[in-house]
């Protein structure tokens, strides 16, 4: 039923691995075993964008990150990502981001990068593998203390959303928000992971947030639709599970960690919760970091 979700995800993987190559739809379709027409049709049906436009937007976005993070010549980056000349690259870049590559390289600012598509989820995997699934053996959530210095947080605070799913269902554009924050990843607070979600508290009500922590000294532009708040320094109790297989174990890992995080009594460690003006953080990078919920505390 969901075999095309998996197949389109393989197309995405193939595109990312060959993003700087003069790759062709024919070559990709031959490797996947389907006709170019059928690949294009299914990709558009599941993602809402044509395969050609997706490759174009990902190339221009990856090129933008190289302009931001390296001192390579604009021409060299243009040729690397398949543009025939600096002029054609400049036209494409200006069309995508309303500024020239040279201007962006000189003074990077938040822009709406195209993010990698994800169409094959743990839900699809469960349906596909339900007859072969064996019991998952997870390790208990680890508990440790981490200090996070005072910082700023740029993002969106939604008091009507209680979790990740509700946040995006309330009309926030994942592509636009995540793409813009990706363009700001070079400003991420040292020691933190860039795009971060979590929870905040306002007048006794709990809401959900999404954004990026940056240094307290950050004075750059704030993307439209987002705001910037200062977060005091704090110790956090970190409830953590190490890297895991996202497709197989995501739901079980998140449930295991959150069961401990939301029911833990910190007094046995000499702490009490300190969430009145501070916010909880949620780290979700399955294969590289794992999953964690961070709750601010103070000494009793």
Automatic annotation (TrEMBL):
Keyword Transcription regulation applies: yes
What Pfam families does the record point to?
HTH_18
Q: Which PROSITE patterns is this protein grouped with?
A: HTH_ARAC_FAMILY_1, HTH_ARAC_FAMILY_2
- Tell me the ranges covered by the HTH araC/xylS-type domain, including all copies: 9-107
Family annotation (SMART domains): HTH_ARAC
Family matches, as InterPro entries? Homeodomain-like_sf, HTH_AraC, HTH_AraC-typ_CS, MarA-like, Reg_factor_effector_dom_sf, Tscrpt_reg_AraC-type_HTH
> What is the official name of this protein in its record?
AraC family transcriptional regulator
Species per Swiss-Prot/TrEMBL record = Paenibacillus cineris
């Amino acid at each position: 039923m969901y075999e095309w979700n998996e197949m389109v995800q393989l197309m995405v993987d193939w595109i990312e691995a060959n993003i700087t190559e003069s790759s062709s739809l024919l070559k990709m379709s031959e490797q996947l075993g389907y006709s170019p027409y059928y690949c294009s049709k299914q990709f558009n049906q599941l993602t809402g964008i044509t395969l050609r436009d997706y490759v174009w937007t990902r190339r221009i976005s990856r090129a933008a990150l190289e302009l931001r993070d390296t001192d390579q010549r604009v021409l060299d980056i243009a040729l690397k990502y398949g543009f025939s000349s600096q002029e054609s690259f400049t036209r494409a870049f200006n069309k995508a981001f309303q500024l020239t590559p040279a201007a962006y390289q000189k003074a990077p600012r938040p822009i709406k990068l195209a993010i990698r598509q994800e169409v094959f989820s743990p839900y699809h995997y469960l349906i596909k593998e339900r007859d072969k699934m064996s019991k998952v053996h997870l390790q208990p959530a680890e508990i440790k203390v981490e200090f996070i210095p005072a910082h700023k947080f740029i993002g969106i605070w939604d008091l009507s959303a209680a979790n990740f799913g509700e946040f995006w269902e309330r009309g926030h554009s994942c592509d636009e928000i995540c793409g813009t924050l990706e363009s700001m990843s070079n400003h991420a607070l040292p020691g933190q992971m860039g795009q971060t979600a979590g929870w905040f508290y306002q007048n006794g009500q709990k809401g959900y947030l999404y954004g990026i922590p940056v240094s307290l000294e950050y004075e750059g532009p704030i993307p439209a639709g987002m705001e910037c708040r200062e977060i005091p320094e704090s110790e956090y109790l970190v409830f953590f599970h190490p890297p895991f297989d996202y497709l197989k174990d995501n739901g079980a890992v998140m449930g295991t960690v959150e069961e401990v995080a939301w029911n833990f009594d910190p007094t046995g460690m000499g702490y009490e919760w300190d969430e009145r003006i501070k916010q909880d953080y949620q780290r979700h990078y399955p294969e590289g970091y794992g999953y964690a919920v961070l709750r601010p505390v103070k000494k009793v």
